[in-house]
Amino acid sequence: MRLKALCWALAVFTFLLLIGWPVFVGLPQRGASKPVLRQYLTRSEIWFTALMVSFLGTTVTAAFVVKQSREEYLEGSADNMRRLIEGTLEDHRKKGESADGN
Predict the structure, then answer these.
(1) What is the pLDDT of residue 16?
(2) Which of 19, 61, 76, 90 could form a disulfide with 7 if both were Cys (CB 3.0 to 4.6 A apart)?
(3) pLDDT above 90: residue 5
């Protein structure tokens, strides 16, 4: 459950980073000096790096969620098959007892 929550939190954070580009980075003014352009480049690199790390984190946690869900499904499927076989054997045993009793 924590893994799913982490995955969703990272997905939301990634989305906010993606749509927040104008707020976080913006555009440099026309004719800006080199120090201002350097600051803009630094902000852009930090934003892009954070976005890529967030995308990667979301992807990795989503892969772990899928793996965990698959394992839970396989366990549940095996348990259902075991119950089906036990129930069938129980029915056959009951039918055999009622046939012997007649």
Answers:
(1) 95
(2) 61
(3) yes
